[in-house]
Write a structure and sequence with these properties.
Elements: H1 3-8, E1 14-23, E2 29-38, E3 42-47, E4 56-60, E5 68-77, E6 80-85
Antiparallel strand pairs: 1-2, 1-4, 2-3, 3-6, 4-5, 5-6
Amino acid sequence: MSSEWNNLRRAKRQNLHYGCRVVDTSGTVLGTCTICDISDGGARLQLRDKLTVPDAFILHLSNQGTPRRCCRVVWRKDTEIGVFFEKDGAARS
């Protein structure tokens, strides 16, 4: 990623390699993914097993389902997506 792009970010990203679950807004687990990097406002996720992710979903950061983040997809590329964490906690479809 170019340094120009990094300078446009509002929050510093922390590199990470952490497994999590993608859950739709009705509570159905859609599959698993890996957080590649994360900031206060969003994350970059590596998708597994050709996982199809809706535009809005809930990201469970543990097997117990908490903590969790309501997410909105802001970009898609091959097997990666970028997500924005909804501040009000409501994932919208």
